[in-house]
Write a structure and sequence with these properties.
The complex is a heterodimer of chains A (488) and B (309).
Chain A (H helix, E strand, L loop, with lengths): L2 H20 L3 E6 L14 H7 L8 E3 L5 E3 L2 E6 L5 E6 L13 H12 L8 H4 L2 E8 L2 E6 L6 H4 L26 E7 L3 E6 L9 E6 L3 H9 L5 E2 L8 H5 L4 E16 L9 H10 L2 H9 L4 E2 L22 H10 L5 E7 L3 H16 L2 E7 L2 H10 L5 E6 L20 H12 L3 H17 L4 E13 L2 E2 L16 E2 L2
Parallel strand pairs in A: 1-10, 1-11, 14-15, 14-16
Antiparallel strand pairs in A: 2-3, 4-5, 5-7, 6-7, 8-9, 9-10, 11-17, 12-16, 12-17, 13-17, 18-19
Helix pairs in contact in A: 8-10, 9-11, 13-14
Chain B lengths: L1 H21 L5 H6 L5 H11 L5 H13 L13 H36 L4 H15 L2 H15 L15 H35 L2 H8 L4 H38 L5 H10 L3 H29 L1 H6 L1
Helix pairs in contact in B: 1-12, 5-6, 5-8, 5-10, 5-12, 6-8, 7-8, 7-10, 8-10, 9-10, 10-11, 10-12, 11-12
Chain lengths: 488, 309
């Protein structure tokens, strides 16, 4: 090859790269984590939902960008007086990507598969209240419950409850077949997943490429060079001011469902004493923490609840920053020269928060040693074996206050009163009443200082300024691309 | 004889790799299910993954599989490890080769240049540059290269890999910056080794004889000193190959390239033991093979070794 040929070739390649950005019906979206597989009904990884939810797979209901439940494959439903029987009227003419029809038999199959003994559905709990599924006709599915379940319609909107077909369920991990407007095109492991518009689907984009970029410097470079068009949650908050100053980009900081907590092992001495736990809460200056660890992004919280939910109660006052009070509480509890270890999982919010929490605890005389660890180690030591004193982690499942009512959960918080309250919330079908009970539950957790509640994790949206329809908030861990389009 | 030693080394490595990785804390099934895992779901998954079997059985199955050409199934992706490794190798092997070309293409001429001007300004400047190249880590060079060529000039992509199916040129262009990031520090090493070898050889009689027969200093160095200085340089190139393979872990992350290095990184985080064990064994085998090739090359280059051996 002569030099002139090489130069010409380079120019063509560059033109092709530039041209891809001008295609205007394709989007390349950067995501930090690669999913282990693509079946949302067989794994907890948020990374799965981030690609397939609403795009490829659909449920009977769905969650919209405001966190509200909307009809999806069920056009409408009726609920019996006693709250035990849900009759879903399915949309007509829906087919899976392989051409097979979607009907009530698929609903029955999906739910029974999730409930089965050998099921690996990560949210089996969502289906637990279900007694049976009946199929009076192809377009009607009747779900009978064991007991009234307030959040049942919401539960069915989760990624773990999307509808799958018996013909394709076993191979959904590598070649997913759903009912959504995008179909699966290609998965290059370690690099990208490509979805393409299904024939006749009413969505603006013809192709969506999800590219896996975990490294913050790599993510910054990819956006700056316009190799990718968007990150729904950008992994390098320190680079955001630079993007804000650049008219090519839009930066939108939204809310997530991620409560970031300094989790306390309630069974480990001296943390079994509520005064010690309260002392830790009063030792933390949340605003300083958010400034120092999160570049100022993040909303302070005082209990385990998302500020974007209507039932949210601001309880940051219960454990307001007050080092004198903290020292006094420690003295009352008879605790002196306390030495603790904070185990830190890999995400940068945890590592950075750990350093500031360490400094703030030192102010009240608690010497904390930081112990960084990998996820696998954290899951085994902290989450499974409960071998820890303090740890920092974000709980990103929506409406997950019920984890405090679970048996054997890693906080070691065992409180009958709280369990009764959560059971009551779950059975309450009236939304206003349910929100009142959620409020009480939040107060109880703040009062008992189960954990030190730090901040709600922000969602750092960063995309090309010409892109519209990206979700601002993350009420569920998903990237719904069905409404995304390029401006003319 | 050399082959038998290589085979024995591989077998020992297989035992070590399996033992070392299986004592790592962290249950692969727990990693897959995350924080929402319930005990019954976890038990179901462990059964599915074969994690309920004793360690010895798992080791034996793994070893038997390797001899049948079956590297197992990736825990992370649920696809055959062999397919996964192959798909990644077509990125990493060309990357390592390109980086080696950068190292040799820059390092040897630079060393020759500096060595033939020993003690002069040019020598000092070249060696100063090499010192900087040694001190600066690959990922930092990578970030600087991206800043210049991808973000400011927009000549090259900032990262990622289009795939060979998209054509050879786009693929090579995508590998260019990572290869430079990876190869430049190695070029610095090579420049220093070459310079030293040249300086030492230049003192020897045959170079002086060459000069006496009317060759210029440069000619004498190139024709007589360089060939005789090659053995240490080849040895270093052999060593560098292992460094380059290890270096891909970092560079592939910075440039988000879907290569073997990134696969190792992901497999550790996800406790994907079948994949991890296979990739490590593959790297061990490669290093052993490269050493073998270097040994043979040295034999050709230096007849004295042949007499001894």
């Amino acid at each position: 090859m002569r030099w002139s040929d090489l130069l010409l070739g380079s120019a063509l390649a560059l033109a092709a790269m530039g041209g891809a950005a001008l295609g205007r019906d394709t989007v390349a979206l950067g995501v930090v984590l690669e999913p282990p597989h693509l079946d949302p009904t067989a794994g907890a990884a948020a990374a799965i939902d981030e690609i397939v939810y609403a795009n490829l797979f659909q449920g009977l209901t769905r969650i919209d960008d405001a966190g509200m439940v909307q009809p999806q494959l069920a056009e409408y439903w009726t609920i019996s007086e006693d709250g035990l029987n849900y009759t879903f009227h399915l949309k007509e003419g829906v087919t899976f990507h392989d051409g097979s029809a979607f009907d009530s038999a698929d609903v029955k199959f999906t739910i029974e598969r999730a409930l089965a003994k050998d099921s690996v559905n990560a949210q089996k709990g969502l289906f637990e209240p279900i007694e049976s599924v009946e199929t009076p006709d192809p377009l009607t599915a009747l779900i009978r419950l064991k007991r009234p379940t307030g959040q049942f319609i919401w539960n069915l909107a989760w990624g773990d409850a999307v509808m799958v077909a018996p013909e394709s369920a076993d191979t959904n991990k590598t070649s997913p077949v759903g009912t959504g407007p995008f179909r699966f095109e290609e998965w290059r492991q370690g690099d990208r997943v490509v979805l393409t518009r299904r024939e006749g689907a009413d969505v603006p984009l013809a192709k969506v490429t999800f590219r896996f970029i975990a490294d913050p410097a790599g993510a910054t470079a990819a956006m700056m060079a316009e190799d990718v068009d968007a990150f729904s949650n950008f992994p390098a908050p320190e680079a955001l001011p630079q993007f804000e100053a650049d008219p090519r980009f839009t930066v939108v900081v939204g809310t997530t469902e991620g409560e970031t907590i300094l989790a306390i092992n309630n069974a480990a001495k001296p943390f079994d004493d509520v005064r010690v736990r309260r002392a830790i809460g009063h030792a933390i200056d949340r605003q300083a923490l958010i400034e120092g660890a999160m570049m100022g992004y993040g909303i302070p919280i005082g209990s385990h609840f998302s500020p974007s939910h209507p039932a949210y109660v601001d309880l940051t006052g219960t454990s307001a920053y007050d080092p004198d009070r903290a020292r006094q509480l420690l003295a009352e509890a008879g605790v002196e020269d306390l030495q603790v270890t904070i185990k830190l999982p890999p995400p940068s919010y945890a590592r950075r928060s750990g350093e500031i929490v360490q400094a703030q605890l030192a102010e009240i005389g608690i010497q904390a040693e930081l112990e960084p660890m990998e996820w696998a180690q954290w899951l085994e030591q902290v989450f499974t074996n409960k071998d820890y004193q303090l740890t920092i982690v974000s709980h990103t499942e929506p409406l997950d206050i019920d984890i405090y009512a679970r048996d054997d959960y890693y906080f070691n918080f065992n409180d009958q009163g709280f369990r009764t309250l959560v059971a009551e919330v779950k059975e309450t079908t009236d939304e206003a009443q349910r929100n009142v009970l959620y409020g009480e539950a939040q107060e109880m957790l703040a009062e008992k200082a189960v954990n030190a509640f730090l901040f709600e994790l922000p969602k750092h949206g960063l995309w090309n300024a010409k892109l519209e329809g990206m979700w601002v908030n993350a009420p569920i861990q998903a990237n719904d691309m069905t409404g995304v389009r390029w401006q003319e | 004889m050399r082959l038998a030693v290589a085979a024995a080394t591989l077998l020992c490595a297989s035992v070590l790799v399996f033992a070392a990785l299986n004592v790592l804390p962290g249950d692969p099934a727990a990693v897959m299910l995350g924080t929402e895992a319930r005990p019954d779901t976890l038990a179901a998954l462990r059964l599915q993954m074969g994690l309920d079997q004793p360690l010895v059985v798992r080791w034996w199955n793994w070893l038997a599989g390797i001899f049948k050409g079956d590297l197992g199934t990736s825990h992370t992706y649920g696809v055959p490890v062999a397919d996964l490794v192959l798909a990644r190798a077509v990125v990493s092997v060309p990357l390592a080769a390109l980086a080696l070309a950068v190292a040799i293409g820059i390092g040897i001429p630079a060393g020759l240049f500096a060595g033939s001007r020993q003690g002069r300004m040019a020598d000092a400047l070249t060696m100063g540059a090499a010192q900087i190249g040694l001190a600066v880590p690959s990922f930092w060079i990578g970030i600087l290269l991206v800043l210049l060529f991808a973000i400011l000039l927009r000549w090259l992509p900032a990262g990622g890999f289009p795939g060979w199916a998209e054509g050879i040129l786009p693929a090579i262009l995508a590998l260019l910056l990572p290869a430079l990031a990876l190869g430049l520090p190695q070029a610095a090493v090579l420049a220093r080794v070459t310079r030293t070898a040249i300086v030492e050889t230049a003192r020897l009689d045959f170079v002086r004889t060459g000069r006496a027969f009317g060759l210029t200093r440069e000619e004498a160095l190139r024709r007589h000193a360089l060939p005789n200085a090659l053995p240490p340089i080849v040895t270093v190139i052999g060593l560098q190959f292992s460094f380059l393979l290890a270096g891909t872990v970092i560079v592939e992350n910075v440039f988000y390239l879907p290569g073997l290095g990134r696969l190792i990184f992901q497999s550790i985080g996800g406790r994907d033991l079948p994949t991890l064990m296979s990739v490590i064994m593959l790297l061990v085998a490669t290093v052993i093979l490269v050493n073998l090739v270097v040994d043979l090359a040295l034999l050709r280059l230096d007849p004295r070794l042949r007499l001894r051996g």
